[in-house]
């Protein structure tokens, strides 16, 4: 028996019984790439959702610290606008809800949940943008407040240094208050910026899920 390949798909077989044409199977495209992309998007959404929840909890904790801490009027009026706006509480709630919806939607990608996650991501983006503006203004106002605190210290009699605040001189209080507030507000700002970037990313992902044919996950 003599076999002579004619093309990549057809083989001519010559035998004593006659000539037979044998059709080989054409290699089918592998679904490995689609499976890898689907797994990548799934893991990515889970991680993003977890980070969003973490950022929301951190912003809430810092907001509680600011609301419960006792500072002189020089510093209290600096972050009073931030607290009155409700961002540390409503913003953190939006972050937690958005992250939770992303994780739930990834496990059950229904049309309702995808649209809900998209709305949550957009709301988180707006909340983070407002929080970024408020925190930037508050951080910028810390230095003038510290200068006012030090000027007020110069106008105080020496015997008032150790009686007004029990832990040390009034000058030391100004420095400690400015440093602690700067650290707290800076961490809140970092969490807010991170949340803004993640919210924009998830909004794009859920937009593709809802309004385009995306091979990563099917919407039911």
TrEMBL record:
Q: Which residues form a coiled coil?
A: none
* An example Gene Ontology biological process: cell surface receptor signaling pathway
**Cited InterPro entries:** CD20-like, MS4A
**Keyword match Membrane:** yes
Membrane topology field: Multi-pass membrane protein
Lineage top rank: taxon? Eukaryota
Q: Which residue ranges run through the membrane?
A: 47-67, 87-105, 117-142, 181-207
Q: What keywords would UniProt list here?
A: Membrane, Transmembrane, Transmembrane helix
Give the family per the record: Belongs to the MS4A family.
Identify this protein by name: Membrane spanning 4-domains A6A
Q: Identify the taxonomic lineage of the organism of origin.
A: Eukaryota, Metazoa, Chordata, Craniata, Vertebrata
